[in-house]
Amino acid sequence: MRSPIWTVCAKEILETARDRRTIGSLVVGPLIGPLIFVVLMNVMVTQTLSSAEDRLDVPMLGAERAPNLVAFLLARDIHPLAAPELGSVEAAADAVAAGKRDLVVAIDDRFAEDFGTARAARVTLVFDRSKQRAQGRVERVRGALGAYGQEIGTLRLVAHGVDATLLRPLIVDDLDVSTSAGRSVLLLGTLTYFLLFATLTGGMHLAIDTTAGERERKSLEPLLTLPVRRSSLLLGKMAATIIYMLAALALTLAAYVLVMHRLPLEKLAMTTEFGFRSAVVAFLLLAPIAPLGAALMTVIASFTRTYREAQTYLSFVLIVPTLPVIYAAITNVEPAAKLMWIPSLSQHLLVTTVIKAQPLDPLLVALSAGSTLAFAALLALLAARLYRREAILG
Amino acid sequence: MIEVEVLGKSFGPVRALDGVSFAAGDGKITGLLGPNGAGKSTALRILSTVLAPDRGRARIGGVDLATSALQARRLFGVLPHSSGLYPQLTARENIEYYGRLQGLPEPLIAQRADALLARLDLGGVADRKAKGFSQGERTKVALARALVHDPQHVMLDEPTNGLDVMATRHLREWLRELRAQGRCVLLSSHVMQEVEALVDELVIIAAGRVTLTGTPAELAQRYPGRTLEEIFVEAVSHAAPAPEAA
């Protein structure tokens, strides 16, 4: 004779698998995260690449007054674009303000006269700082102009017999210690949230069905007349819920692994170790969330009268795991033992560690899993208590 | 044998049962009659161990429900007010699920399910999902499910509700068959005509109290010149009808 827990679990898995709507959402849910990720990354890659490598056409006023400067810019693949409608700096400013242009370079009327005299020649960059997507191009043009000025200055000092290094008493070197994997974290931070979201969504239907759903279909009352302890019924249903959650988690991770391989992350100076092995580790790190989510959702659903009502409440529950993730993103916290007791935050920090390709501290992993599972056990006890009440019949 | 002694149950300020006592014997069909809200469903829910009474006690097959609910649940089968089938499972799977939860061995479950599906003329829909079933088919499958463990006691909450003429006739046939097998059948109804041809014992309850008990023949003798319907109406409108000839 099989244990009633297994009988209930197997029946719930079968019944849910036959519900086309539920299975549909189970498949679509895990794909949302990777899909958003692909779109986001593609936008970033296109923007960054266009500002770093590609030919850049910039409307330039008075290009004819500074042929050497233009040649210098051309060598850096910055091409002057004729813009006869922009007669003056004011007209260019209007065009940028109106959003018709992102960036205009205006070479001063007196550039040719001033250049090479004691006066400094002027070049005006017209742009809108609030326009994020233009920033890369602005910086690139500014950098090229600055380099030109520096080169000319150095040449003049040398022509006067002055050592150019005299003008640079201080040399500031950047030593960026972030690994290319570390840089990926900024974007990959969204990953934990989508993983948590997909996990919880995967079990939502069954968590509701355990109480509110069975009650609404009038199948709870005859079920409770069978010679099976209510706690066994509950455990069987929660086991099925957990299995669906883990399936959703595995599916999401698989989708991410596939997506990561196809993204040109290295072009963003990002590499990620997010291969099959990391996915397995992330799965194990996140797995304790499944029993916690199942127990929490079952407890909340047991207070509701209908499936729809339960769905409304549980949508809010889906937001809860984001809060620690947002906190972590804002405060930039590092994994530490004192944070490991917080479910979702601890998983976020550990999964982030995996993405950064840094070593995992076994103690932190144990603390995270232990605490999350302890919370899950407490909530499961509460769910069992609620399931024993007469009010469960509605 | 189902025995109920001074059962009391309140939901907040509402007294659903106020000292209900009766007995339903083996090889008999006992009808629990009363208007809506009289306490029939509450009594059946206590007997099916879904609710616990505030006072009084109930025994099924001699097993006290308060102390040995799990043991008692093997001794009865329940046809609830709504069939409560799982729509995504087939008729057979619905029956087998209850067989497993009753703790029956797999070969016996298959054997019982086949026999019940055949006896209840469900062969044609046995492997179809329950979500497309008619009310009659749902009731039949729910009955088969309640009988999968071959219980001595069968309790049915308004079983003829929503059934058409033919389905009602069939149901009556099966209930008589269960009686002939020596089982204890307890059913509730709020319509006298539906059960007067069927039941051996009548327990009429109103406002949470038993107002009248007896066999249809005894009642007809006690209140000559009145139909069972008239006796029922009187029994539920005044606490107990005054016998014409004391």
What do you see in this structure?
The complex is a heterodimer of chains A (394) and B (246). Chain A has 15 helices and four strands. Chain A is mainly α and 394 residues long. Chain A folds into two domains: 4-45 and 180-393, no CATH class; 55-167, D-Maltodextrin-Binding Protein, domain 2. In chain A, α1 packs across α9. Chain A is elongated. Chain A starts with a helix and ends in a 6-residue tail after the last helix. Chain B folds into two domains: 1-75 and 152-246, P-loop containing nucleotide triphosphate hydrolases (Rossmann fold); 84-150, no CATH class. In chain B, 35% of the residues lie in helices and 25% in strands. Chain B is built from nine helices and ten strands. Chain B has a six-stranded mixed β-sheet with strand order 6-7-8-3-9-10, sandwiched between helices. In chain B, strands 2-1-4-5 form a four-stranded antiparallel β-sheet. In chain B, α3 (91-101) packs across α4 (106-119) and α3 runs parallel beside α5 (135-146). The A-B interface holds A 1-2, 4, 7-8, 11, 14-16, 18-19, 217-229, 390, 393 and B 45, 48-52, 70-71, 73-74, 76, 78, 80-89, 93, 97-98, 100-105, 129, 142, 145-146.
